[in-house]
């Protein structure tokens, strides 16, 4: 006696095996889709961070350039001061620095 739906016959076994492969493929596709989505979000976050870091580096570069210009001008003035005949001014600056150090030493000593 034959019962319907028991999978008798060669065609039914092939169809059930094909269905199992299809289910496994769909499951693997969903896993792959989730991983691709996670990688997409990660790459977007990395891109955003890179843009932010580049902006900060550009700002630092402009700050360093302006500071370098300021220091270059200051060093040029100091060189001009040391070369010139303004030794009297240089002597006054040295005496002032010495006075400040003596006063600071005196305050520290009293404490």
UniProtKB/TrEMBL annotation:
Annotated T-SNARE coiled-coil homology domain residues: 19-81
Transmembrane region(s): 89-108
Protein topology in the membrane: Single-pass type IV membrane protein; Single-pass membrane protein
Matches recorded under InterPro entries: BET1_SNARE, T_SNARE_dom
Subcellular location: Endomembrane system; Endoplasmic reticulum membrane; Golgi apparatus, cis-Golgi network membrane
Sections of the chain in a coiled coil: none
Keywords from the UniProt entry: Coiled coil, Endoplasmic reticulum, ER-Golgi transport, Golgi apparatus, Membrane, Phosphoprotein, Protein transport, Transmembrane, Transmembrane helix, Transport
GO CC annotations on file: endoplasmic reticulum membrane; Golgi apparatus
Gene Ontology process terms (BP): protein transport; vesicle-mediated transport
Family classification: Belongs to the BET1 family.
Subunit structure as annotated in this protein's UniProt entry: Interacts with SNARE complex members GOSR2, SEC22B and STX5. Interacts with LMAN1/ERGIC53. Interacts with STX17.
Function of the protein: Required for vesicular transport from the ER to the Golgi complex. Functions as a SNARE involved in the docking process of ER-derived vesicles with the cis-Golgi membrane.
Record's protein name: BET1 homolog
Protein species of origin: Esox lucius
Lineage: Eukaryota, Metazoa, Chordata, Craniata, Vertebrata
